[in-house]
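Continued from yesterday's entry.
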Amino acid sequence: MRATGRGPSVHRRAGGRLAALGLALGLLTAACAGGGTGAGASSGTSPGAASARAAAAEERLAENSIVPLEGAPPTPVLPVTVDSSDGRRVTVEDASRILPLNGGVAEIVFTLGLGDRVVGRDITATFEEARKLPQVTRAHDVSAESVLSLRPTVVLADTDTGPKEAVQQIRDAGVPVVVLDPATKLSDVTARTTRIAAALGVPEAGKALNKRMNDELAAAHAGVPEGSRPKVAFLYLRGSAAVYLIGGKGSGADSLLAAAGAVDAGTEAGLDRPFTPITTEALAQAQPDVILMMTKGLESVGGLDGLLQIPGIAQTPAGLNRRVVDMEDGVLLGFGPRTPLVIDILVDRVHQDG
């Protein structure tokens, strides 16, 4: 299967999945609609069910769409005063015009059922429901003028949002700005959801979304084959910029791989930084069974054949067996409501055939 940039693919075991798609859609639809159940979790314990869940997850990610919580959209109960990650206390009195300055934050807002209140987006909000909204960033920099022209009643940012002068200009105009810590690991997803729901006056919706995600993650993890612990190396590559890095502790991929029942090869090899330049020695130490990458990164080095030309990769078990899994850039480390779909796919793709 060739990487297309639209969704995840694995360069091995390409056949046999379409037959499972009917079962897959039923499994995943039930989990999303009902928030997941004990029955849903147990259904993921067989290899066939794991493959079915992965196939359905691929379909969902290919649609690039958000599945809101069931039922009527929540009604914000305001005002609320919340902690902002820049050390401030922020009071939100009106959530009728919400402007998230981060794609992951926007995804949570839409999934909470408040998408019809969102008035703009930043460049990283690329899912279908947000695509037609006005963009308020140039490259990754926020334009204060563009933000203020949309008359937001609350802005949601994170500590990486900048430039800081633009954020301060928005705040000086009287708009409440709630700053959040970035999500860099799986456990951050529920904490971030709780904070966003609290800031928008819909805490019960936040609890419901967290329950749904936790149930979906449990169902995905139930598909891990007993006794299977493959070593997976996350490689961050940008061939055009000569960036060749291997993930280690704190890369973000390490927490995803743990949830999928795999071992992060970089961390196992003693790499205690999020990213380290790739060397032949580092790869020889890591000895990954599978390589995990972002799709654009794989494309930037010429696909699988180009990847195998990087010194040391062809000599790893992953290189020898051509076992490379790639996933769309914005989804793989997005850490949001669609992250359980990522785990569904990883559970199926990184483990050996039974």
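--- second protein ---
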Amino acid sequence: MTAHHTDSASNLPQAHYPYKVMAIYKFAALPDCEALKTPLAQFCCNQGIKGTLILAPEGINGTVAGSAEAIDALAEFLFVSGPFGTRLDGAETKYSFAEEAPFLRMKVRLKPEIVTLRAPEADPSKQVGTYVEPENWNALIERNDVVLVDTRNDYEVGLGTFQRALDPKTASFVEFKDYVAKHLDPARDKKVAMFCTGGIRCEKASSYLLSQGFEEVFHLKGGILRYLEVTPKEESRFAGECFVFDERVSVGHGLELGNATLCRACRHPLTEADRAHKDFTEGLSCPYCADDTAKHKAAAERQHQMDLAKKRGTAHLGDAVKEIAARAKKEKIARAEESRARNGES
């Protein structure tokens, strides 16, 4: 690992867990992102790494997991020896650990943006707000002249957020522009502080606010994850758990595994209170999709297939399922071709 990407995660209490998790993003000029996709995917697959990485002309974003050796090798590939050269140097990179595999397969995706806002005027490579280190965050957000905004989506905010933070109640980040137009005023809100999971949304959001005439814009460096990693629990101003986009669902202070689960019908994160609700049925429904019969039907079928797989002693998730499905499809095609051949069909 390079000197630019030192790994403090080895001090975490979960450091003995078998899976090392890397969350990374950087706004960097990658006009050749399409050519970078295949070598990056091949490297990750060869190392047994799983997760999702997004490449776009504006940079890289994603989270992956594998053995500690594999993730360290990926860091070397991204920052030193691979086709990216030094373009990802200084990337916001966070490491944590998981007891069970947090991802089921490896995906490298090409997208127009690494975080979708659809606002060309928001260009973090040209201007961003002021970074605030986690140790200075509490003092900033406790000031009366600072407006604190959570830039995450409503289902994420529902699991946990900072005290006094405004919730834009967005279903997607694209809606953040409308929230700003309706609820924030550069003439009134002279100082705006923002935060998100890992820092990436805030970089683009802060750039957008500056483009709209806001004078002072601050954002939490490294996001909630970095704050939870380094801030003593007794000093924390974050209430609840932080939603993460993998099978862990949520983490708490010290990046310990949280208590949230996912509804298998609608994928909404669920708290203990949600699971105690009358509309919650394990694997089938939750309070957030109680009226969506289509989702319930799909979830019921999925649960049925999982139960059958369990009885047969076969896998039902991840790459094993993918391999089984591919083999079944191949066998089906072969049987169809044999049938056509027997019947003299062309």
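The radius of gyration is 22 Å. Residues 130-240 form a domain with the Oxidized Rhodanese; domain 1 fold (CATH 3.40.250.10). Will compare against the first tomorrow.
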